[in-house]
Design a protein that fits this description.
Largest sheet: 6 strands, mixed
Helix content: 40-55%
Number of helices: 14
Shape: globular
CATH architecture of the domain at 15-216 and 456-461: 2-Layer Sandwich
Structural class: alpha+beta
Order of helices and strands: HEEEEHEHHHEEEHHHHHHHHEEHEE
Length: 464
Amino acid sequence: MRELSFQMIINDPADPLLKAFAMAYPRASAPRVCRAPGRINLIGEHTDYNGLPVLPVTLDREIRIAFAGGSDSLVQLRAGDPGFPFCQFNNAASIPPSPPGSWGNYCKAAIHGLNEYFRVTTFPGMDAYVSGNIPIAAGLSSSSALVVAAGLAYLAILGIRLDEDLSRLELAQVLAEAEHYVGTRGGGMDQAILLLGEEGAACKIDFFPLRAEKVPLLTDYSFIVCHSLVRAEKTGDMMHRYNEGPLTCRLICALVERQVQTDFDSTVEIARLADLWHGHLCLTHEEVQSLFDRSLPTERMTLKQIAQRLNITTEEIRRRWLGDLKEPERGFHLRSRARHQLTEYQRVEAARDALQAGDADELGQLMNRSHESCATDYYVSCPELEALVAIAREAGALGARLTGAGFGGCTVNLVHNGLLEQFGAEVERKYYHAFMSRRQQTVELPERMLIARTSAGAGYLAPS
């Protein structure tokens, strides 16, 4: 099947990486190597930051870091890709971020987060060389893989043993919070699957408390990842677009809390939307839908309308929940975003059941409905993703949907193994040659499709 695999940057375990490390740091001690895989989210998009479940798998593309203790408190970062320039900073109780978009911020995030969690008082240095083959800005979690790998490297420098001194569940929660350092408000799915995932299985991940349930994959079907050729960046304006989801969900939560206090008990507090199902209320899906209808009476709500319902000023709303997020001309799409949370939660549960039953048709339909909700209720799709999803279904995919944050990046497609060649050829012809030939301002990639193969979760490589 032509162009359905990425070339491995690191072929045989660590030797090329170790050679690169030795050239970059000729005076350093012998390095260790750690790795963190990418991930594909099969279903459950933009739900984790509300405490609602997701269903991802690990991906056999990864970030690897060769590392050793450095001089004093100096952290030095080099990468095999020339697009990632040399970066260094002093490890300290407070680590100022680099300018937005700097790759070094993801390493800083891990180190800063672990310093805070372990209350580090002496701040060791580290020499690190980073390499990897996860497509960047593709919705496959290259950034979180860098955070996790950097976290593993720094744990070893601190002398803290994964799975002995610190569990994977604990580390996933620490690094999920730590990644907020870079400015995105994710919910913890990426760090959890990268650390808890297993080869040959999906993970249904629940939050608060974090827990993972292994789910078998279908034997006669494959998940094909197709890149839209639109980079799904999380910097600049795109970071604001991504953060609109979690920020507006915080506002939904405040409005729902006010309604619950009116309906049930003035002392009830709702920290996140998942509390409606799993907290003291233990509401059914139907009861949550009714609560949303009462809390969010119109499809759009302006800041003024929201302020009136909460009995506070618009300035207070911004201070507590929205920050500098721009108000749309006709108000925020709160009702449809709430609807997506409810229906996507139901789809994740149903998708887990479909996988366990080996029901590919049902899983495909759930993936299709998830994409429609992401596009029309959550507004995270784009014209290229819409075209790619439609073409994939025409080419034989039982299910096709955007994966990751959206706004570009990749789709994930459920395809019978007997149709892989036909599927690849048709998508190549209709999307990459016909459709994309009419588009501009896209990224050209030599590898545009891959068969998703799972891998073990993040960890350390044994010396060769």
